[in-house]
């Protein structure tokens, strides 16, 4: 009898707790979701409505005006193209360097792997600083060139670590040794066997580097001067935060411009985040996997 | 493990064994050594050479004379920095911001992960995960613009809401005292879902027999969380905490730089932004490098201390 009573009481307390958990998560969901929806709605609304503060949740007077203005801005378009270039090319460079570093590190018979590992991970703990790194880039003649965005941040130690962990746990040493006895060279083994088997981790590496490149602005800020090289984020910064626009509208358009200015910011934000947030739902599984692998090593 | 031999003999034979192993590996894996060469070069050039370049912190760097030709200045720049009236403000801003961020940003993902772990999989759970994970991928520039737009005194939604409730609009980004709160809350908003995934992974790795034992013992959900979930999270949490402390001195530099304006500067100016402005914008290279070096060294010391602490208290540590 006492057991039955205890079971029911606990079950009630637990159910109450569970209800509380659901309430908590719903609030979290709303808090995260609302700003995103608001920005999306504002970008699709009539500029007058946005300026007047009529938009709360849904678009008011659906209008594509904001997008029209944004997409006809030549700076935005060049920025977009540049960012696609940096993301694509930069990812290829980064993933290649990461894999050729991580794979040898995963092989136990590779002499010096511990030393190499320490060599790399030390850079996570200490760095020369902003100015000394700037000097290196400058002395290499990379200032104001595309290379400045592709090379200095090419390899992230964290990525090397999770790639190495993946190789260690997914490519059995026996396989490597067997193929070695069959006369397969290390390089050929890597290229023909390891890489095809490593699609999940390569996908994670690609996505992390690509998103990192797409979202980066600071390196462009300090290394680039020529506007035609600017990635999208830098253009965004100029327009959204510094409030400078390449205005080719004349004075009579100023009033309209003010209202448009507020609206275009929302549209600009949506356009800039579009690639990432569209691919995101499909790809988040791989990111999650990447985090799992990485945190197993810790 | 090698047996202990008399010291000289031991080191001699161990060195010989190592050398043999090295030669064997070189012959067998020569392709690896070639393969890693570009990457190693990258680290040397872009990570280690800057460490050497940082020597200009101890010199009076002149562009004409170059790094190695510039005259020595000893600790002059460091002394200048320590006696600079801004010194304490900078330290205070940097530390307070980081500590505040850790204080709020550390527990929230844990709570989120624990909560998500309580509910069964399904549409709701997947939606919450998907949505909370998303803000992490918003770029810094976009994130800051969102903050500026939503908190705008004129037509930001937050202030519109305040006005509707009868309050006066607040210039959130213009009041120094509010800066830290704005920054920390926005940072948590953006990063909590992402960190929660790590904790969820840790929770998924907990031995299911522990849960069964808890059930048999009649534990309630809350008790289960306290006695099974939290201990299972500890290793991951400790690592993340160490890493957070390790970046205390360089906290959110890119985001803070964009959020700064003349009005909030007295709270928002941290060491890293100061280095950027003094160094690259004012071309005061030696001084800025000295400050940056100070920053990095303090960072390293903090990391080592926290790691030691973690090793004493728990069984997990970074190294």
Features:
heterodimer; A: 298 residues; mainly alpha; MetI-like fold; B: 319 residues; 73% helix
Overall description:
Chain A has 298 residues and is mainly alpha-helical. Chain A is 76% helix and 0% strand. Chain A has 2 domains: 51 residues; 171 residues, MetI-like (MetI-like fold, Orthogonal Bundle), CATH 1.10.3720. Chain A is built from 14 helices and no strands. Chain A is globular. By secondary structure, chain B is an all-alpha fold. In chain B, helix 6 crosses helix 10 and helix 12 packs antiparallel against helix 16. The mean pLDDT of chain B is 87.
Q: What's the short version?
A:
Chain A is mainly α and 298 residues long.
Helix/strand class of chain B: mainly alpha
* CATH fold-type name of the largest domain in chain A: MetI-like fold
The helical percent of chain B reads over 70%
Gap between N and C termini of chain A, in Å?
48 Å
Largest sheet of chain A: none
Q: Could you spell the SSE succession of chain A in H and E letters?
A: HHHHHHHHHHHHHH
Largest sheet of chain B: none
Which helices and strands, and how do they pair?
The complex is a heterodimer of chains A (298) and B (319).
Chain A: H1 2-43, H2 47-52, H3 65-71, H4 74-106, H5 113-125, H6 130-139, H7 147-150, H8 157-170, H9 173-181, H10 186-197, H11 199-215, H12 218-223, H13 232-241, H14 254-297
Chain B: H1 7-28, H2 30-53, H3 66-69, H4 76-83, H5 87-105, H6 107-118, H7 123-133, H8 140-150, H9 157-164, H10 176-204, H11 208-216, H12 221-246, H13 253-259, H14 265-268, H15 271-281, H16 285-313
Helix pairs in contact in B: 4-16, 5-10, 6-10, 7-10, 8-13, 10-12, 12-16, 15-16
């Amino acid at each position: 009898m006492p057991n039955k009573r205890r079971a029911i009481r606990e079950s009630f307390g637990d159910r109450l707790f569970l209800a509380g958990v659901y309430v908590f998560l719903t609030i979290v969901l709303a808090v995260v979701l609302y700003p995103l929806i608001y920005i999306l709605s504002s970008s699709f609304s009539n500029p007058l409505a946005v300026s007047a503060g009529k938009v709360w949740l849904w678009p008011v007077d659906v209008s594509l005006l904001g997008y029209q203005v944004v997409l006809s801005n030549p700076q935005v378009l060049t920025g977009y193209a540049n960012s696609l270039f940096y993301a694509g090319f930069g990812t290829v460079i980064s993933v290649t360097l990461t894999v050729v570093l991580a794979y040898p590190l995963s092989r136990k018979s590779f002499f010096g792997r511990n030393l190499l590992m320490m060599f790399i991970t030390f850079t996570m703990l200490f760095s020369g600083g902003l100015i000394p790194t700037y000097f290196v880039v400058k002395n290499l003649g990379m200032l104001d060139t595309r290379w400045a965005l592709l090379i200095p941040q090419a390899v992230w130690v964290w990525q090397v670590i999770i790639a190495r962990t993946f190789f260690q746990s997914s490519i059995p040493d026996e396989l490597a040794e067997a193929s070695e006895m069959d006369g397969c060279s290390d390089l050929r083994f890597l290229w023909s066997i390891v890489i095809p088997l490593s699609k999940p981790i390569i996908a994670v590496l690609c996505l992390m580097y690509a998103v990192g490149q797409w979202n980066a602005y600071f390196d462009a800020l300090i290394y680039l001067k020529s506007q035609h090289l600017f990635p999208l984020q830098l253009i965004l910064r100029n327009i959204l935060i510094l409030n400078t626009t390449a205005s080719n509208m004349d004075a009579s358009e100023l009033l309209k411009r003010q209202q448009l200015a507020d609206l275009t910011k929302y549209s600009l934000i949506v356009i800039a985040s579009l690639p990432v947030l569209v691919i995101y739902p499909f790809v988040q599984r791989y990111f999650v996997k990447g985090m799992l692998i990485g945190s197993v090593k810790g | 493990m090698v047996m202990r031999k008399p010291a000289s003999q031991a080191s001699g034979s161990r060195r010989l064994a190592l050398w043999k192993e090295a030669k064997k590996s070189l012959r067998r894996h020569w392709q690896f050594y070639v393969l890693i060469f570009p990457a190693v070069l990258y680290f040397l050039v872009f990570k280690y050479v800057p460490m050497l370049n940082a020597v200009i912190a101890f010199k009076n760097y002149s562009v004409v004379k170059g790094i190695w030709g510039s005259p020595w200045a000893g600790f002059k720049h460091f002394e200048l920095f320590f006696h600079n009236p801004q010194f304490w403000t900078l330290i205070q801003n940097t530390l307070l911001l980081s500590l505040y961020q850790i204080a709020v940003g550390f527990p929230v993902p844990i709570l989120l992960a624990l909560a998500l772990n309580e509910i069964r999989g399904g549409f709701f759970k997947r939606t919450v995960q998907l949505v909370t994970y998303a803000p992490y991928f918003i770029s810094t520039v976009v994130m800051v613009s969102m903050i500026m737009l939503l908190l705008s005194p004129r037509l930001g939604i937050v202030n519109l809401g305040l006005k509707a409730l009868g309050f006066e609009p607040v210039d959130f980004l213009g009041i120094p005292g509010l800066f830290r709160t704005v920054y920390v809350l926005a940072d948590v908003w953006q990063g909590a879902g992402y960190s929660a995934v790590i904790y969820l992974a840790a929770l998924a790795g907990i031995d299911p027999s522990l849960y069964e034992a808890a059930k048999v013992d009649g534990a309630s959900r809350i008790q289960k969380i306290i006695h099974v979930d939290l201990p299972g999270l500890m290793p991951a949490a400790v690592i993340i905490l160490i890493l957070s402390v390790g970046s205390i001195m360089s906290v959110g530099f890119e985001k803070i730089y964009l959020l700064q304006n003349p009005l909030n500067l007295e709270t928002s100016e941290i060491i890293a932004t100061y280095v950027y402005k003094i160094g690259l914008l004012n071309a005061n290279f030696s001084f800025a490098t000295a400050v940056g070096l100070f920053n990095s060294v303090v960072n390293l010391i903090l990391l080592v201390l926290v790691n030691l602490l973690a090793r004493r208290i728990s069984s997990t540590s970074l190294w």
